[in-house]
Write a structure and sequence with these properties.
By secondary structure, this protein is mainly alpha-helical. The chain is about 50% helix and about 5% strand. Bound molecules: s-citryldethia Coenzyme A.
């Protein structure tokens, strides 16, 4: 019979005991849910550096080893042996699909790729120069106004339909956001194409020309989607969980996740990274890397090496390695082996990884360092990079949101604070205020 492991805390001359819970792999946790009731004190953990917000069986990250598992499968194996919809099935259901299960899943996705025709008019409300992420946040949030038959989060059927609608419609909505900003007509989905190929079709086809997506580019985009599909309790996933904990409908929760992902410290880093590489290139390219690195190391410059560093990975982000390989494949396919930005990025990585500022802080390339170069080479506009990240991460958000709703331990998320404001005081009538 295993004895319950205990952690003890001494505070104000008292000793308190808290149970320790062990997972399958990774750090154990100290269950402090009774701490406030016992001690009248809160824990203090801005940024949640030492806080596990939930139990989860979806994704595991070992930051020191640079390991990423989706439902136990290493990302390196999934990226090579599976496609994105297979990975969606795995993240959503917990197991890889059989051939029949896969075909059924793909068939269901294909039944939902179109959006409500009236939704196409909503795009007219945006300026043509709107950032695609602003459009995505608005469009996805508005889905609850069009699909009112899948809003009841306590109804498993509603949750299942909402999940398939989101997986299937995100590429359509993202491609429409791009078409709208360039003044081209929307392209309807083509259900004879695979998921990534259909997205490239909706992005780059026009009614006047025959368009067949390049299979190498489709496969590269499919791999980018796999690499971005889920990542444990990151900022946008935590946003989706927190929104879901209030009982908000699935479309509202995913829209909240998109909004959070937009930030340059998170999903917006790929767009920021490409802008950083472009600026270095314009200011002299490889010859100017040293000067740029010095600026990054100067705290007063407030300049970061975008695409580098990670809250969890204190080793190479396994996705960055796969992304660099994909970058190589795509540039080769397009005859861009000498792409100056790719060469610049590799030289910047080499120099940074030899510089003690980055080595001592365990700052390595993350998933965003190479993803922008691949997407730019594929003709995807920089402003849509994060939109594609959101498209890929939709399955992760859905899987985590579903897990939260099914978790009997979950309550509405409501953190407390350390109050540092004014003590109680009385209002003085305005004439008496000096
Ligand atoms: C994603 O959480 C996830 O899983 C996210 C993600 C996912 O799949 O969901 O992996 C996707 O968001 C990847 C990260 C993309 N963001 C960027 O590339 C932006 C640049 N990176 C940094 O902003 C930063 O590294 C973070 C935000 C990613 C992580 O920041 P932390 O964990 O809060 O670390 P920190 O800011 O406390 O940094 C520790 C030190 C600091 O220096 P000191 O105070 O010790 O002197 O490292 C420095 C930081 O200034 N530092 C950097 C740096 N990142 C951290 N210095 C220069 N360039 C950087 N990129």
């Amino acid at each position: 019979m295993t004895t319950q492991k205990i952690a003890t805390l001494g505070l104000n001359g008292q000793t308190y005991e808290f149970p320790v819970i062990t997972g399958t792999i990774g750090p154990e946790v100290i269950d402090i849910r009774s701490l406030y009731g016992k001690t009248n004190a809160f824990t203090f953990d801005p940024g949640f550096m030492s806080t596990a917000s939930c139990r989860s069986s979806i994704t595991y990250i070992d930051g020191d080893k640079g390991e990423l598992l989706y439902r136990g499968y290493p990302i390196e194996q999934l990226a090579v042996n599976c496609d994105y919809l297979e990975t969606c099935y795995l993240l959503k259901n917990g197991e890889l699909p059989t051939k029949i299960e896969y075909e059924e899943f793909v068939g269901t996705v294909r039944q939902h790729t179109m959006v409500h025709e009236q939704l196409t008019r909503l795009y007219q409300g945006f300026r043509r120069d709107a950032h695609p992420m602003a459009i995505l946040v608005g469009m996805v949030g508005s889905l609850s106004a069009y699909y009112q038959d899948s809003l009841d989060i306590n109804n498993p059927e509603h949750r299942a339909v909402a999940a398939m609608r989101l997986i299937a419609k995100m590429p359509t909505i993202a491609a429409m956001a791009y078409k709208y900003t360039i003044g081209e007509p929307f392209m309807y989905p083509r259900n004879d194409l695979d998921y990534a190929g259909n997205f490239l079709h909706m992005m780059f086809a026009t009614p006047c020309e025959k368009y067949e997506p390049n299979p190498v580019l489709s496969r590269a985009l499919d791999r980018i989607l796999i690499l971005h599909a889920d990542h444990e309790q990151n900022a946008s996933t935590s946003t989706v969980r927190l929104s879901g904990s209030s009982g908000a409908n699935p479309f509202a929760c995913i829209a909240a996740g998109i909004a959070c992902l937009w930030g340059p410290a998170h999903g917006g880093a790929n767009e920021a990274c490409l802008k950083m590489l472009d600026d270095i290139q314009k200011n002299g390219g490889v010859a100017k890397i040293g000067e740029f690195i010095e600026k990054v190391k100067d705290k007063n410059s407030n300049v970061k090496l975008m695409g580098f560093g990670h809250r969890v990975y204190k080793n190479y982000d396994p996705r960055a390695k796969l992304m660099r390989e994909t970058c190589h494949e795509v540039l080769h396919e397009l005859g861009l082996q000498n792409d100056p930005l790719f060469k610049l990025a590799m030289e910047l990585e080499r120099i940074a990884l030899e510089d003690d500022y980055f080595v001592s802080r365990k700052l390595y390339p993350n998933v965003d360092f190479y993803s922008g170069i691949v997407q730019k080479a594929m003709g995807i506009p920089v402003s849509l990079f994060t939109g594609i990240f959101a498209m890929a991460r939709t399955i992760g958000w859905i899987a985590q949101w579903n897990e939260m709703i099914g978790d009997t331990e979950q309550k509405i998320g409501r953190p407390r604070q350390l109050y540092t404001g004014a003590p109680r005081r009385d209002v003085r009538p305005m004439p008496l205020r000096t």
